[in-house]
Design goal:
Blueprint (H helix, E strand, L loop, with lengths): L4 E4 L6 E2 L1 H14 L7 H5 L5 H9 L9 H14 L6 E2 L3 H10 L3 E5 L4 H10 L9 E2 L12 H10 L6 E5 L2 H10 L2 E5 L17 E3 L4 H11 L2
Parallel strand pairs: 1-4, 1-6, 4-5, 6-7, 7-8
Antiparallel strand pairs: 2-3
Helix pairs in contact: 3-4
Length: 223
């Protein structure tokens, strides 16, 4: 079946959003008179969401008193600071240009809520280029359930087998496979130190966005 579309996870795949998360976490510590922690500690927890980042930032169990207030403060701050330092990963602008030149459709399927994802896409000038943005707000079940990818494919008018889904988390690959998409795991994203993308069962694993050029070339030439 001919490849017609490429769908990306957002955080850690399409975009390096960690700098904004890190800035929020460090600011919360600073305002409480706490020293900054190693940025990498926060970056390693991005895939775990707000709960994991706040728990690491304050070395606090998520069941502890006061944790929920910190989590809500984190989300409120992030909403005001979600598109300050975030940028496409190196090589991603060139890859998107190649995808568009090949007349392929591209879009985003992310577990990031729309109130964060939409302004980031707009701020980076990607909203008008992306054919679809599917967030948890649009489905009843987020990744690793395939619903998000099935909806994205339906919205852009392609069969799941005509789409490649690219992600940096095992949930991405599980969702893509369950939907019937081809899958690519990336190692440059927010991979927990104990995890290994080569064990996720993806069709291909890449270490840099531009390595996807070869993946797309092979997919197009094999049609």
């Amino acid at each position: 079946m001919r490849l017609r579309a490429v769908l990306f996870d957002m955080d850690g795949t399409l975009l390096d959003t960690a700098p904004d998360f890190i800035a929020v976490c460090q600011a919360m510590r600073l305002e409480r008179g706490l020293a900054a922690i190693d940025d990498q500690l926060i970056r390693d927890q991005v895939s775990g969401g707000a709960r994991a980042m706040v728990a690491t930032t304050f070395a606090m169990d998520s069941a502890a008193d006061g944790f929920e207030a910190l989590r809500l403060e984190f989300l409120e701050r992030y909403q005001q600071h979600c598109a300050v330092f975030s940028q496409p990963f190196a090589g991603m602008p060139e890859l998107l240009a190649d995808i568009e030149q090949a007349r392929l459709i591209w879009g985003v399927a992310t577990n990031k809520p729309a109130r964060f994802a939409e302004p980031i896409m707009q701020q980076l000038g990607l909203a008008e280029r992306s054919a679809v943005l599917v967030c948890p707000d649009h489905v009843s079940r987020s990744k690793p359930d395939p619903e998000m990818l099935l909806l994205a494919c339906a919205k852009i008018g392609v069969q799941p087998g005509e789409a490649l889904f690219v992600g940096d988390d095992e949930r991405d690959i599980e969702a893509g496979r369950a939907a019937g998409c081809k899958t690519a795991a990336v190692t440059y994203g927010y991979i927990h130190p104990d995890d290994n993308p080569r064990h996720w069962g993806a069709d291909v694993v890449v270490d840099h966005p531009l390595e996807l050029r070869g993946v797309l070339d092979r997919a197009l030439c094999s049609c």
